[in-house]
Amino acid sequence: MDSSLQRRSFFALAAAPWAGVSLPGLAGEPRPSRLKLAAAWRTAEGTRAVDHVGVLAVDWQAGSVTVETDIDLDSRAHGLLPQADGDFLVVAARPGRWLMRVGPQGQVQARIRVDEETPARGFGGHVLASPDGQWLYTTETDPRDGSGWISVRDARSLRREASWPAHGMDPHHLVLSPDGRSLWLANGGIARTPEGHKRDLSGMDASLVQLALDNGRLLGQWRLNDRRLSIRHLAWNRSAGGEPVLGLALQAEHDEASARRDAPILALWDTHQGLRLATRAVAGAGYAGDISPGPAGGFILSGQRTGEGLLWHPDAPDQWITLARVTEPCALAAWPDRGGVLIGASRGMARWDTREPPAMLPWPQAMNPDNHWVVLG
Fold first, then answer.
1. I need a labelling partner for 354 at 20 to 30 A (CA). Which of 47, 211, 289, 332 fits?
2. Among residues 117, 121, 70, 129, which one has the least CA distance to residue 96?
3. Number of other CB atoms surrounding residue 243 within 10 Å
């Protein structure tokens, strides 16, 4: 690990980009210096790459990150989800073959593999819990015909109890509505081989879908005009007037490199305007790795290909604000009620908050973090 990491300037917080943007003041209690994150990462053991999932303990005051629990995996993990009892869920990266529940001390509480089920679908990479915690919803693809599905699973055993159509291909991230009554789904719209490789991009059909939480009936479906924009990840925030706004992180799949580079990376949905692009301002080389709610109705996205943490704010909708410059950022975790974010990057983790100075900590060992992580507790 590069010991000079903490001495280098990874952040760009120039005053000029903030002109005209209304943000919260710096008043309020400081964020506690310690926290825990459930995360996935990869290490090199000789010539072999080994995938892991576990708990990272972060102490900002001491300037340290430690690996508190560590489970070796037989394939990459992707989405993680904290549970009220201290457990967390982790699902394999697409086309995923497993889902498991992990206890706070690193013990595997339950695990299920798709080859134990009929039909044996591949996991789409994310899992969601019902408001009461009794049920789980997983995105899945049937390799026989590429159809997308949502499985309803028992939260303790992880067994599939019901299935709902996803009304599209390549279902990926899913979130609950703010009132907890419906499920919102990002259909990536990309046809794939059974191994997960993209094919037939000219026939893409990405969509945002709303399903009733009680029986999976279709409540709404929306599409962007540009069918080569894949909808990948979702995050809720609220407008200045208190209305829910859904942010959609996009990934461009155009044939031409220049079209991908200049493609938009953020769309918005609300009840008044429906689905539309937030801005056509260029950022992130057309690829948003993750999305998190930002301050005062904004959204923070990880520009993995350009090495940036990016803020879009409704007070300055036609510009992108660079919050951080880091190497290969992807995983984002919101700080509740703060409008800040924790950013996972290849050399360490970054912290940005409207009330505290930005900071970065190096990883405790050579490790490559995966796409997502979540704050525990």
1. 289
2. 121
3. 13
